[in-house]
Amino acid sequence: MTTLTALPRGLRPLLVSEARLMRRNPTLVVVVAALPVVASIVLGALPATTTPVTGLGGLSWFTAYQPILVMFSVVLLSVQVVPDVLTRYREMGVLTRLRATPATPAALLVAQMILTFVVIVGTTALMVLVPACLGATLPRNPVGFVVALVLSATAMLALGMVIASLVRSNKIATAMGSLLFFVLQFFAGLWVPRATMPDWLRTISDATPSGAAVGALTDTIDDAWPGLVHLGVCGVDRRARGGRCATLPVGVRMSGRTDTCATPWDDPAMRAPRRAAARPLNWERFDIAPVFLVVVPGALILVAALISLLTGVTASGGRIGALISLASGAMVLQGSWIRGTSMATPIRVVVFATQLGLTAGLIWVSPFFGIYAFTGYLTALMMFSGAALWSAMGANAVVTAAAQIGGFAEIPRAWPAYLALVAVNTALVVLFSWVGARRDREVAARESAVTALEEAHRRNAELQEQLLQRARDQGVLEERARLSREIHDTVAQDLVAIVSQLEAIDGGDDWARRVDTAKTRARAGLGEARRAVYALRSPMLDAAPLPTALTDLVDAWGTVHDIATRVHVDGDPVPTDGDQNLLRICQEALSNVSRHARAAHVEVRLSYVEEGVLLDITDDGTGFDPSSVHEGNGLRGMRERMSGSGGTVDVTTTPGSGCVVSAAVPA
Predict the structure, then answer these.
(1) Closest by alpha carbon to 163, among 89, 243, 248?
(2) Nearest CA-CA partner of 285 in 390, 160, 417, 385
C-alpha cells in the first residue's frame, strides 16, 4: 500500500500569484520563451537550414540547433531566473513571513518548480510543433524526447536550486548564474555545435548536464533512444543536486515588479548623451569588480587557445604565430583600458574596433574563440549608449555568428544559417540589454522610493514632535485654567473671608468670635492649599492603581478635615484611561464637601462593572437645591474632565439630605 504525501498548504494561491509575477517578468517572457521559439521557427522555415550538412554529421542546421535552443531556454530559466527570484524572496524575508500564514516556504518552492516545468514544456512544444507545421522534421522518437527533456529540466532545476540554497546575496547568485549559463551553453554547442567538436571535447561535453541533455535530445531525432551515458549524466546530476532543494535557507528583504513596457530605444540610459571630451565609463551597469573584466576574458582566451592547440586547428606554424600574437594583443588591450574611469568618444571607438578586429582574427585562426567573442558585448555596454551601443552590439553579433558556423570560411557554404544566427545573436543582445536597462530603472525607482520614504519619515517625525509640543502647551494652558478655578473656589474665598472677619473687629465684645472664625477660615485655607499641593505632586497613579490612590486620597482628606470617611471597591479593578479624571473628580467633590456641606461622614464607592467604572461620593451634609444654585467652576470642571473621555457627571441632592456626586467612565 502506497502512502501519498499531502501537497503543501497554500499551494493553489501561490501558484496563481507566482504565475502572475512570471507574466510580468520580461526576462522570462521575452528571452526564455519568445526568443528561442522565434529562432527555432526561423531556422525551421528556411530550406537551406533544414537541409542535411556533411560538416554536421548529416544533421541540418535546424536539427543541430533545435536541442541547443531548447536547452538555452531550460538553462536560462533554471540557473538564472529561479535563483534570482528565490534569493530576492529570501533577502526580503518573504520565506520567513510565509511561516506565519496558511502557506509555507515549501509550498512556494513547489509552486516555483511546477511553473518552471510548465514554462519549459510549453516553450519546447512551440519550438517543436510550430516549425513542424512549416515543413521541419519532428523528433522520430517522441517518447524518448519527452524522457530526455524531463531529466534534463530536472537536472538544470536542481542546479539552480543549489545556487539559491547556498548563495544568500541576490547579486552574487545572479553573477554565478550568468557565468554558469555561458559555461553550460558552450558545452551545449551554442557557439561551436557539438557535431563539429573534436572527439575529446565532445566527450567532455557529454559529461556536463547541458551537453548530455543536447546529446540525448539529438539522439531522439533519428528515431533512437537517448544514449545511456546522456541519460545517466542527467540523472546523476539531478540526484546529486536534488537534495539541496529542500535546504533552501530562510533569511531575512523582493524587488517590486512593474508592468511598464518599453522598448530599448525608450530607455534614457540607452540614449546617446551629448558629446564630451571625456565621459565616465558605464560602470553602473555592472555589479562585478573591474578585475573580473580582465580575468574572465583572459581565461576564455587561454581556454580557447588550449582547445585549438589540442584539436590541431592551428597545426600550421603561421596560424600558431597568429594565435599567439592576436591572443597577446587582446589580453594587453583588455588590461589597458579597463583601468580607466573615463574616456573620450574617439578613443572608445578605437578601443572597441581594435578589440573587434582582434576577436575576428582569433575566430579566423580558430572558431573556438567564439567563447571569447561575447566579451565584446561587455565592452560595448561599458563604452557606448544609444544608437552607438546597438551598432557595436550588432557588429559583435556578426563576428560571433561566424564562430558558430565553424569560421569565416564556412559563410559562403552556409550563409542562410549564418544570417539566421546573426539575427538570433542580435536579438539576444538587444533583449538582454533591454532587460538590464529595465532592471536599472527599477533599481533607480526603488532607490528613489526609499529616499522619498525616508524623507516622509523624517517629516512625519517633525510633525509628530510639533503635535506633541502643541499638546504639551495646550495641557499647560488647561492646567493653568484648572488651577485658576481651584484657587478661586478655595484659597481665594478663604482669604476673603479671613480679611472680612479681621476688618469687622472694632473693639467690641465679639472680637474673640471673629478671631476664632478667622482662624477657622485660615485653617480651611491651609487645608485647601495642602490639597492643591497634594494634587500638583507627581501623579499618584504612576505608583499605585486607582483604588489604592483613591483610598490614600480620601484618608488624607478625612484626617485634614476631621471627617469620618469610608471607601468601598466593588468588582475587579481594571486600569482605564479615565482613572486620572476619576481621581481629580473625587478631589473636587471632597473639596466641595469640606467647604459647603458641613458633613460628618463621607462615603466613597468605586465600582467596576461590565459597562465601565462608576464613582460615587456621598456625604450626609446639608445638601442644596440644584435649581437655585449657580454652577461654579468646580462642577463645570468635573464635567469638562469627563466629556473628553465620553463619561458623565451627575449631582443628586436635596436640601437637608446630603449630596451624591456620581461619575461614570464607559468601558
Answers:
(1) 248
(2) 385
Distance of alpha carbon 519 from alpha carbon 511, whole angstroms: 12
* Residue 155 near residue 209, CB atoms below 8 Å: yes
Q: Are 371 and 303 in contact (CB under 8 A)?
A: yes
Amino acid at 88: R
CB-based contacts of 338, cutoff 8 Å, min separation 6: 290, 293, 294
Angle CA 286–287–290, to nearest 5: 70
pLDDT at 257: 36
- CA–CA–CA angle 65, 181, 220 (5° rounding): 35
Angle between helices 105-133 and 82-92 (to 10 degrees): 160
Are 404 and 233 in contact, with CB atoms under 8 Å apart? no
Distance in angstroms (rounded) separating the CA atoms of residues 530 and 524: 10
Q: pLDDT tens across 492-504, in order?
A: 666 777 777 677 7
Identify which of 548, 404, 415, 461 has the alpha carbon closest to the alpha carbon of residue 49: 415
- Among 294, 360, 362, 296, smallest CA distance to 333 is for 294
CA–CA distances in Å: residue 434 to residues 31, 180, 263, 280, 316: 10, 21, 7, 21, 43
Q: How far is the C-alpha of 545 from the C-alpha of 374, rounded, in Å? A: 77
φ/ψ of residue 405, rounded to 5:
-95, 5
Cross-sheet strand order for the sheet of 601-609: 564-570, 601-609, 612-619, 659-666, 648-653
Kindly report the pTM of this predicted structure: 0.49
**Alpha-carbon separation of residue 286 from 35, 167, 222, 266, 386 (angstroms):** 24, 19, 44, 20, 17
User: In 339-385, which residue ranges form alpha helices assigned H by DSSP?
Assistant: 345-365, 370-373, 375-383
Q: Residue with C-alpha cell 457627571? A: 649
What's the mean pLDDT when you consider all of the chain?
Answer: 76
Q: Which CB contacts under 8 angstroms, 24+ apart, belong to 358-363?
A: 358/326, 358/329, 358/330, 358/333, 359/330, 359/396, 359/399, 360/399, 360/402, 360/408, 361/322, 361/326, 362/301, 362/304, 362/323, 362/326, 362/327, 362/330, 363/399, 363/402, 363/403, 363/407, 363/408
Contact 281, 382 (CB under 8 A): yes
Please enumerate in sequence order all residues whose Cβ is within 8 A of that of 323, keeping only pairs 6 or more positions apart, or say none.
305, 308, 309, 314, 362, 365, 366
- Give dist(CA 229, CA 190) in Å, integer: 21
Cell numbers that stand for 527 in this block: 487645608
pLDDT digits (tens, 9 = 90+) for 613-653: 999 999 999 888 887 776 666 677 788 878 777 888 999 98
